Amino acid sequence: MRSALFAATAFSLAVTGQSALSAEAPYVDDRSDAAAVIRSFYSAINRHEFARAWDYFGDTKPAKDFGSFVKGYDGTDEVEVKTGGVSDEVAAGSIYFNVPVAIRATAKDGSEAVFAGCYTLRQVNAQIQEPPFRPIFIDKGALKPAKAGFEDAVPESCGDGPRPPKKDEALEQAKKAFAATYGDQCDKKTPDGKAVGEPDAYSIHYKEADSASDEPERETRLFRFFCSMGAYNEGAVYYIHDAITGVRQLQFASPELDIRYENNNSEGKVQAVNIIGFQTDDQLVNSEYDDATKTISFFNKWRGIGDASSTGTYLFRNGNFSLVQYDVDASYDDESNPQTVLDYNTAP
Q1: Cα(282)–Cα(236) distance, rounded to whole angstroms?
Q2: CB–CB of 104/77 below 8 Å?
Q3: How far apart are CA 95 and CA 118, in angstroms?
Q4: What CA–CA distances, in Å, run from 110 to 134, 180, 188, 192?
Q5: Residue spans of alpha helices (H) in the chain
Q6: What is the 3-state secondary structure (H, E, C) of 69-118?
Q7: CA 305, 310, 312 angle in degrees (round to 5)?
Q8: How far apart (Å, rounded) are the C-alpha atoms in residues 287 and 299?
Q9: Cβ of 215: how many Cβ atoms within 10 Å?
Q10: Which site among 70, 159, 221, 259 is 20 to 30 Å from 193 CA-CA?
Q11: Residue 279, burial from CB neighbour count under 10 angstroms (0-12, 13-18, 19+)
């Protein structure tokens, strides 16, 4: 069976004159499962290793001969691939796998096209094989131009395959917003080595103060993104989502302080800490969300030992977070002795 992909010669790769992109494409040759074979096939295509790509197929090849197969990729610069939920069925001596696939083919002129469909792969029982051994191979494939964009083009299933989980649209929107604003500003890795961009996510269910008793609860999603790590402070960015406003970044109210020291010596005794205005911060330092109290709190160390610092608490109510307490320890005296400069937690 000749797939639409292989017929789409407008999105093919040249044998000679490798681009810098294809030359840098990672080498993947993983035949441990069906989806891995598909990824390996497109690794070979991107690296112009057409003999390797040809070898991922069994007796039924994707073109009448190897030369036609290579020529079929003349002009394409890169192919990205996504796979969906894989199904399998057992036949005599073999297991057949159905793999939903979407690809985005980028031509050398920069134009793009998206194709989607299914590949069928076969794994012959290793115990009944004789040399040469044949690992999992592509039996056939049929991709057609997709109506959806690349991110949404993977078929839900092939054959009796499982349907992929529904996308968390709120999470995806928050991730895109974070990447667009902070992709070049934040660290690339978290302290534990994970890629930045996957947030901690929380669901907050509540009723507004003036809602009737029979009204259903509302839901707000909260997303906490790690941003940066210094010597003793970690920065985080927050987004929230609700059904009315969609995704938006949280901005945190912060008092502007006028701190007076004895003899104007910051190492000396603190005489007064006054609030002279308010500003907003787009990040919080050493922060966390507590679902039990529905609060976000932070602890900003002014120096490593934490004897001088500012701390604050933001309470979730009626769909938003409000600053309800702010404490300041302005004395660099090797001790923790904060004073509260703003308090809406205590009754008047």
Answers
A1: 9
A2: no
A3: 16
A4: 38, 22, 27, 37
A5: 4-7, 20-24, 34-46, 50-55, 66-71, 169-182
A6: HHHCCCEEEEEEEEECCCEEEEECCEEEEEEEEEEEEEECCCCEEEEEEE
A7: 130
A8: 7
A9: 10
A10: 221
A11: exposed
**Could you give the CA distance from residue 79 to residue 28 in angstroms, rounded to a whole number?**
14
Q: What are the residues facing 112 on neighbouring strands? A: 106
Rounded to whole angstroms, what are the CA distances from 107 to 12, 79, 332?
7, 9, 61
Q: Which of 173, 169, 299, 278 is nearest to 225 (CA)?
A: 173
Place of tokens 């007796």: 59
Q: Is the CB of residue 105 less than 8 Å from the CB of residue 11?
A: yes
Q: Is 233 exposed, middle or buried (0-12, 13-18, 19+ CB in 10 A)?
A: middle
What span, in angstroms and rounded, lies between the C-alpha atoms of 277 and 346? 21
pLDDT in tens, 275-323: 999 999 999 999 999 999 999 999 999 999 999 999 999 999 988 999 9
**Token code pair at residue 107:** 């031509």
DSSP-derived 3-state class of residue 202: strand
Of 118, 99, 117, 80, whose CA–CA distance to 33 is shortest? Answer: 99
Interatomic CA distance for residues 222 and 201, integer angstroms:
6
Structure tokens that stand for 24 in this block: 């840098």
CA angle 207, 167, 227 (to 5 degrees): 80
Residue burial 51-75, b: 16+ Cβ < 10 Å; e: rest: ebbbebbeeeebbeeeeebbbbbeb
Structure tokens at 216: 């259903």
For residue 132, say if its preceding peptide bond is cis, omega within 30 degrees of 0.
yes
* Cα dist from 140 to 56, 82, 96, whole Å: 11, 17, 11
Query: Could you tell me the two tokens for 96?
Result: 């057949």
> Which tokens sit at 106?
């980028």
pLDDT digits (tens, 9 = 90+) for 20-65: 444 478 899 999 999 999 999 999 999 999 999 999 999 999 999 9
The pair of three-digit structure tokens given for residue 194, joined into one six-digit string? 């994970």
